[in-house]
């Protein structure tokens, strides 16, 4: 559920063709692109074609049963999401890149989840928003390609357009799509971001990655809200990432208690995945946790004013939830926390908040706190 409406990077005349005598050695160029990508801080790069017919059908089935919830943008662009050459006419290949994001030295994820008085923020969102950082690196990669072959057509995307990034990355050999619908790399687990360069260069394509989940279903079984309704089938309407980020209204009451203390996103399906024993820590200092968000106390976060929220989340993915959503999410977590006078006072202080959504969730949390409090 990571979306950013950054303007895509525009190359020179996209459909321009090189004269025959100037055709480069595309196999050598592909090897150079992968090397340049690593030099620019990407963990890996791969190249795929544009055929995504089976994935298009999977997406259509997912949309038809309504699993996308309020994410209307998933259906808005028709077949452009699954047909790169319709989104950008002239596209022949897609260069997919991945970048590790798990920062070293942070509070362990399970320690935060098991501390009901702390707020859990998905590990990808603890530091700087990745969109601009990766977009700039992709621009530099495109410039290196231009330096080698001259002008060529390209667009760079990092959650900035209707792109089936996981399917493209799979076809480029960067990993397989697991039963939780997250991309898994055999040597690096799943804690990484994806980005793409659509290009008109006829580069040799890589072998798609094979699947290695086998009979494992740990991700399905651990999901707090049972959002993974079957292998490779995610009902986003039940997913905590959707509920805390994409959903702008009231969180369904039956899903509030299972959310626990997860206030922005959820990593349980990745944390339990055996392949993440191979996960690589990031070397990007910008992804380090800010404002102790890798384990800050709920009461402390709930006390942030709107100005503090905007200042402290500047340049971070957390800003996407909005201040109202931030308070709504924390109110639910406070309702799930062990009863205490400190939490009661914090909730009562927000009971007359101007937002109806915030008030509703605060009152729910107060009822939970009062019902769980020991009798006097």
Automatic annotation (TrEMBL):
Protein name listed in UniProt: Epoxyqueuosine reductase
UniProtKB keywords: 4Fe-4S, Cobalamin, Cobalt, Cytoplasm, Iron, Iron-sulfur, Metal-binding, Oxidoreductase, Queuosine biosynthesis, tRNA processing
Annotated positions binding cob(II)alamin: 81, 159, 183, 194, 241, 266-267
Active site: 159 (proton donor)
Binding site for tRNA: 248
Subunit structure: Monomer.
Origin species: Dyella psychrodurans
Lineage: Bacteria, Pseudomonadati, Pseudomonadota, Gammaproteobacteria, Lysobacterales
Pathway: tRNA modification; tRNA-queuosine biosynthesis
Domain of life of the source: Bacteria
Binding site for [4Fe-4S] cluster 1: 213, 216, 219, 273
Cellular location(s): Cytoplasm
Family indicated by similarity: Belongs to the QueG family.
The protein's enzyme class: oxidoreductase
Function summary: Catalyzes the conversion of epoxyqueuosine (oQ) to queuosine (Q), which is a hypermodified base found in the wobble positions of tRNA(Asp), tRNA(Asn), tRNA(His) and tRNA(Tyr).
């Amino acid at each position: 559920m990571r979306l950013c409406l950054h303007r895509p990077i525009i190359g020179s005349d996209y459909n321009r063709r090189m004269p025959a005598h100037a055709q480069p050695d595309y196999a050598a160029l592909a090897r150079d692109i992968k090397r340049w990508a690593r030099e620019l801080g990407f963990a890996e790069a791969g190249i795929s074609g544009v055929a995504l017919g089976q994935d298009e059908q999977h997406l259509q089935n997912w949309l038809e049963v309504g699993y996308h919830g309020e994410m209307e943008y998933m259906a808005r662009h028709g077949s452009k999401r699954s047909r790169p050459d319709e989104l950008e006419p002239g596209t022949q290949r897609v260069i997919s890149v991945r970048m590790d994001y798990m920062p070293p030295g942070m509070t362990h994820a399970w320690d935060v989840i098991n501390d009901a008085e702390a707020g859990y923020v998905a590990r990808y969102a603890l530091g700087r928003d990745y969109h601009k950082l990766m977009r700039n690196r992709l621009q530099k990669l495109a410039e290196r390609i231009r330096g080698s072959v001259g002008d060529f057509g390209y667009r760079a995307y990092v959650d900035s357009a209707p792109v089936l990034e996981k399917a493209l990355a799979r076809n480029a050999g960067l990993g397989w799509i697991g039963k939780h619908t997250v991309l898994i790399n055999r040597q690096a687990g799943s804690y990484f971001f994806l980005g793409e360069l659509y290009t008109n260069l006829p580069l040799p394509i890589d072998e798609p990655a094979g699947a290695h989940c086998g009979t494992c279903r740990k991700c399905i079984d651990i999901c707090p809200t049972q959002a993974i309704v079957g292998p490779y089938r995610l009902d986003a309407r039940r997913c905590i990432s959707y509920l805390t980020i994409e959903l702008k209204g009231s969180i369904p009451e039956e899903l509030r208690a299972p959310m626990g203390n997860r206030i922005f996103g959820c990593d349980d399906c990745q944390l339990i995945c055996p392949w993440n024993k191979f996960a690589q820590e990031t070397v990007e200092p910008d992804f380090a946790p800010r404002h102790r968000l890798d384990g800050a106390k709920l009461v402390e976060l709930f006390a942030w004013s709107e100005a503090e929220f905007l200042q402290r989340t500047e340049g971070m993915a957390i800003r996407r939830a909005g201040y109202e959503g931030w308070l709504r999410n924390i109110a639910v977590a406070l309702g799930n926390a062990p009863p205490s006078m400190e939490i009661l006072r914090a909730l009562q202080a927000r009971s007359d908040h101007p937002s109806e959504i915030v008030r509703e969730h605060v009152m729910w949390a107060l009822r939970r706190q009062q019902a769980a409090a020991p009798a006097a």
